[in-house]
Design a protein that fits this description.
CATH class of the largest domain: Alpha Beta
Number of domains: 2
Order of helices and strands: HHEEEHHEHEHEHEHEEEHHHEEEHEEEHH
Structural class: alpha/beta
Number of helices: 14
Number of strands: 16
Shape: globular
CATH superfamily of the largest domain: Type I PLP-dependent aspartate aminotransferase-like (Major domain)
CATH topology of the largest domain: Aspartate Aminotransferase, domain 2
Strand order of the largest sheet: 4-10-9-8-7-5-6
Helix content: 25-40%
Largest sheet: 7 strands, mixed
Distance between the termini: 36 Å
Radius of gyration: 22 Å
Length: about 450
C-alpha cells in the first residue's frame, strides 16, 4: 500500500497528510485551517465549516472563490484549448489580455507585455531584462520590501524574512519612511539617497529602482505624501528606470486600478501578479519596447501566457469594471478601516490602522506611548483565535506584528462588519490569555 493510501486508510486529517508530504520549504501555515472548497468570500475547511476570508489567500483570490466569471472563462478556455504555451505560438486570450493591460495601464510610447506565473518570476524578469538592456548592474530597493522568492527577486528584496539569502552585489537598500514609528523621515531618506549618489553609489551604475507604492509585507506602510514622487524625480535625472511592484496592492485593491496612481508615479515598468489570475498562476510585466524587446527568447517559461490562465486574467479585468470593484474597494475598505479604528477605544493592542482601500494593516503594540511592537507570538495568537472564531487573515511586518487584511474585492459591508467583530473578540480573548503559547508554536514561521 502506498504512503498516500496508508494515510487515508488510517483516517489521517488533511493537516496530518499535509505535514507528511508537502515540503516545509514551500509551506507557510498560520493555523490548522485545511481546505476542501470555497464559495464567494468564504473558505470551506475539512468538516464543512465556512470561514470568512479576509486574506484572499495572500491576495490572488481577488474575486473570491468560484466566481462565475472565472468559472465560465476557464471552462470555455479548457473546452477548446488553444495550445498550452505562449512560448512558440500566440493564442487569442494571451494576446487580448496584453492588449487590455496596455489600454488600462498608464504609460507613453511603444510598450510590450511579458507573462509569467507569479510576482516572484515577474520581478525576477524585470530585474534581468532591465540590467541587460541598460548595461547597468546596480539596483535600489527598500528595507522591508518583498519582491519575490526566486534567486533574482529575493536578491533585490529587503525583508527580514529574506535574511537567509544575501542581497545582490551592489544593491542599495533605503529605509521606507514609516510615519507611525518615524525611524527615518522622508527628508532623511532623500538626503541619504543624494549622499549615496554623490559617494558610493554612482547613479550611472544604477539600472533601476524597485518601488512598492504601498509597502505590503513590510507592514502595509503608506508612504508620506510626495516622497515616492521625489525619489522618482531624482532617478529620472540619472536615467534610472522606475519599476513599480503592484503585485499585492494593484488591480483596484487600493481604491484605484493601479496603486501607483495615488503617488503621482509614472513608472517605466509595472509588475502585476497575484490577483491578475483570479486565483490561477499569472503575472505580467508591462514596459517600454526598447527594454522588453531587448533580445528574443531572453526570459522563457513554457506554460506562461497559456490560454487558460490568460482567460482568467481577462475575466478579472472585465469583472473589476463590470462590478464597480474600484469604487467598492473604497467604500467597503472605508467601512472596514473605520470599524477597526473604532476598536482602538477599548483594544490597547491596536496602535495604528493604516492602508488604502482593501489593503489594510493593523499594527499591534505592547504600549501605545512607546509604540513597541508586540511579539510575533502575540500576533500569531490573534490569527489563531480569529481562525477559531471563523475568520482567516495573516500577519506581516518586519517584526511580525501587523495583521494584514487583503480580502477579496467582492467583500460586502456586512462581511466587513463581521470581520471587525471577530477581530475585536480575538484581541480580547488573546489579552485574557485564552490562547496558549503551545497552541501557536507550530504556526510561527514567518
Amino acid at each position: 500500500m502506498s504512503h498516500t493510501a496508508q494515510s487515508r486508510a488510517a483516517g489521517a486529517s488533511l493537516q496530518e497528510r499535509d505535514l507528511r508530504v508537502i515540503a516545509n520549504i514551500g509551506r507557510l501555515r498560520f493555523s490548522p485551517l485545511s481546505l476542501i472548497g470555497g464559495r464567494g468570500n468564504r473558505l470551506i475547511e475539512e468538516g464543512g465549516r465556512e470561514l470568512l476570508d479576509l486574506s484572499a489567500s495572500f491576495g490572488p483570490a481577488i474575486l473570491g472563490y468560484s466566481h462565475p466569471a472565472i468559472t465560465e472563462a476557464v471552462s470555455a478556455a479548457c473546452s477548446s484549448m488553444a495550445g498550452a504555451s505562449l512560448l512558440s505560438l500566440p493564442n487569442e486570450n494571451a494576446v487580448a489580455l496584453a492588449e487590455e493591460l496596455l489600454e488600462r495601464t498608464p504609460g507613453g510610447g511603444e510598450r510590450r507585455v511579458w507573462f509569467g506565473h507569479s510576482g516572484s518570476d515577474a520581478n525576477d524578469c524585470a530585474m534581468r531584462v532591465v540590467q541587460a538592456a541598460t548595461g547597468r548592474s546596480r539596483f535600489i530597493s527598500f528595507i522591508g520590501a518583498y519582491h519575490g522568492n526566486l534567486s533574482g527577486s529575493m536578491s533585490i528584496s529587503g525583508h527580514t524574512a529574506m535574511t537567509h539569502t544575501l542581497p545582490r552585489a551592489g544593491l542599495l537598500l533605503l529605509p521606507y519612511p514609516d510615519r507611525y514609528r518615524c525611524a527615518f523621515s522622508a527628508e532623511e531618506v532623500l538626503k541619504l539617497l543624494d549622499h549615496q549618489f554623490a559617494t558610493t553609489c554612482p547613479p550611472a551604475q544604477v539600472a533601476a529602482i524597485f518601488i512598492e507604492p504601498l509597502m505590503s509585507d513590510g507592514g502595509l506602510i503608506v508612504p508620506p505624501p510626495g516622497f515616492l514622487e521625489a525619489v522618482q524625480q531624482r532617478c529620472r535625472r540619472h536615467g534610472i528606470q522606475i519599476i513599480v511592484d503592484e503585485v499585492k496592492v494593484g488591480l483596484a485593491r487600493s481604491g484605484r486600478l493601479h496603486c501607483f496612481e495615488h503617488e503621482g508615479l509614472e513608472p517605466d515598468l509595472v509588475v502585476l501578479g497575484k490577483g491578475l489570475g483570479g486565483g490561477l498562476p499569472l503575472s505580467a510585466v508591462i514596459g517600454p519596447q526598447h527594454i522588453m524587446d531587448h533580445a528574443p527568447a531572453f526570459a522563457l517559461q513554457t506554460t506562461a501566457g497559456n490560454p487558460v490562465a490568460a482567460a482568467a486574467g481577462r475575466a478579472v479585468l472585465d469583472t473589476i469594471a463590470a462590478e464597480g470593484l474600484i469604487e467598492r474597494a473604497n467604500r467597503v475598505g472605508e467601512r472596514l478601516s473605520s470599524g477597526l479604528r473604532a476598536l482602538r477605544a477599548h483594544q490597547p493592542l491596536i496602535g495604528e490602522v493604516r492602508g488604502r482601500g482593501l489593503a489594510l494593516g493593523v499594527d499591534l503594540v505592547r504600549d501605545r506611548a512607546s509604540r513597541e511592537p508586540v511579539t510575533v507570538t502575540t500576533t500569531a495568537k490573534v490569527i489563531y483565535r480569529a481562525y477559531q472564531l471563523g475568520a482567516v487573515f495573516f500577519y506581516v511586518g518586519l517584526r511580525g506584528n501587523v495583521l494584514e487584511l487583503t480580502p477579496p474585492l467582492t467583500l460586502s459591508e456586512t462581511e466587513a462588519e463581521e470581520g471587525v467583530a471577530i477581530i475585536d473578540r480575538a484581541l480580547s480573548d488573546v489579552s485574557r490569555g485564552l490562547v496558549a503559547d503551545a497552541d501557536v508554536a507550530p504556526f510561527m514561521n514567518w
